[in-house]
Give the backbone structure.
Amino acid sequence: MGRPNWGHRRRRNRVLVAVLSILAIAATATAGSLSASAQNGGAEGGDDISHSANMRQLANIPKQPPFDTVDAFGTDIAFTGKHAIVGNYSGFVIYDIGKPRKPKIVSQVICPGSQNDVSVTGDLLFLSTDSSRSDDSCSSQPQPASEKNSWEGIKVFDISDKANPRYLKAVETKCGSHTHTLVPDNAGQAAYLYVSSYSPAPDFPDCQPPHDLISIVKVPLADPQSAAVVAEPVLFPDGGNPGRPGSFPDSYTTPTSGCHDITAYPSKNIAAGACMGDGVLFDITDRERPKVIEQVRDDENFAFWHSATFNNAGNKVIFTDELGGGGAPTCNERVGPTHGANGVYDITGAGGQPELAFRSYFKIDRPQTDEENCVAHNGSLLPVKGKDIMVQAWYQGGVAVLDFTNPAKPYQIGFWERGPFNKNELQVGGSWSAYYYNGYIYSSDIQKGLDVLDIRDPRTNSAKRVKMDELNVQTQGTYPG
């Protein structure tokens, strides 16, 4: 989602965390047995669920106090073992998903600071803070980025005890951490975090223009409290895309001042960056010195390069366009099928000179109302041998599963969605992230909590046999096929 203009500072290394252990809260089971509070959105909004014949909801856990306000957005998801960890503007939530039909909350950690995107490796959890705070503690207050002692960046937690996570370390980064990407080193001794941030301003002491860089945080796994920024590589020495003026609903292109999201494919030493006005490929052979090896623009149709997903072979990539910053109704005839969509690219070329070759756009074809924010957002692959199949969140457009094996003709396999969160006016809601993990789709709904979905289709059923111990979607692994 788009970034507000806020700022940064590191205050201390260890901070006490308020943890709410809610062991007794189980899923509200199936859609048919949802409680009234789980069904009803703002004003007269309701679930009004619609879905394809091959997809259904298995469970939902509504957001629980104090994360149950409309401003406490549910955000990204990371998986470790039998647990899903979901970020929230107010902190993060750890779910036990050992029984997908009956997930339950293990703990809630109060630690305000949007977006609180998460990643995990072993017993370590990393949290992105991209709102200017008074300090690095979990009791901090909002503070203008124009004040030098403001803080934002990366927080590190020990989650060896899922019911009682411990806050270990804070690392300040320039312009904060809107998102981050975990990239393991080749020796298995450290994790690198590629920190994406943007929106510099002359009056922000810690977020100065042109900010054409990312921050790289190195976390020694045996000593995570020594985590520190080790590099700030400049990606766009020419300043990147200068942009094209305009605002939604008109066509525009956002000027590049950093990246929004990076997806790494460590085993292939490549990464794809969605960097506002630019889509890029990186060579990440040297983890501390990523190099831009290809750059592409689409000023006609892409307003904001938001995220990227490789296929399993690493020879295709889907970039998403977050037209309207995630808060606008773009899934309608007025906006059309090529804005706020996916762009599907082949990676061609030889001799270490890859090229991004555009093949097609994909956008859901279910018209949404003017009261529903809807645009291409976060998704992951389904591990289907020989096929390129992806599940993806579309905010209030719901969850879609698409096949892009033929990059020129991607098509939808299935979908699941709710009606408007508020039928009287647009309130931001819907699926922020929808990821496939060990046989099921998990969707983090901004307002409705955690959904567990099931797809049963001959084209995807083989994915249920692939099991993973850990999943950070922006750190792609390889599956057989």
Summary: The chain has one domain: 18-471.
